[in-house]
Amino acid sequence: MSDFVLNNHHLREVLTFFIHLKKTAAEACRELHKVYGDVALSETTSRDWFSRFKDGDFVVKGRPHEGRAKTFERAELEALLDEDPCQTQQDLSSALEVPAKPFPSDCTRWK
Questions:
Q1: What is d(CA 15, CA 9) in angstroms, rounded to the nearest whole number?
Q2: Terminus-to-terminus CA distance in the chain, angstroms?
Q3: pLDDT tens digits, 5-15
Q4: Which terminus of the chain has fewer Cβ atoms in its 10 Å neighbourhood, N or C?
Q5: Judging by beta carbons within 10 Å of its beta carbon (0-12, 13-18, 19+), is residue 41 exposed, middle or buried?
Q6: What is the pLDDT of residues 57-87, one digit of tens each?
Q7: What is the 3-state secondary structure (H, E, C) of 11-64?
């Protein structure tokens, strides 16, 4: 049995094959769904990648993006407050490496 694991990088490489065959994103998406089923890229994602390829950008590695801000576990916050209950939000955000205002408004220690 093969150790092959399907991932988005592989699917993007396959899309380059379809673009060289002069297929549309919709056609490529249909073919991918025939082979891979629901784990294939969506038609919207296929169109986005086709647009990049048509612009000459054939780098199939995903571009970095900011995405969602880093979160923390409430237990981490509670542990820091147990150490020193007089810490400011700025001190806590630095210690947790998160933006300065992500703390829950229901934290009873700040009321």
A1: 10
A2: 60
A3: 788 888 899 99
A4: N
A5: buried
A6: 888 887 666 666 566 677 787 888 888 888 8
A7: HHHHHHHHHHCCCCHHHHHHHHHHHHHHHCCCHHHHHHHHHHHHCCCCCCCCCC
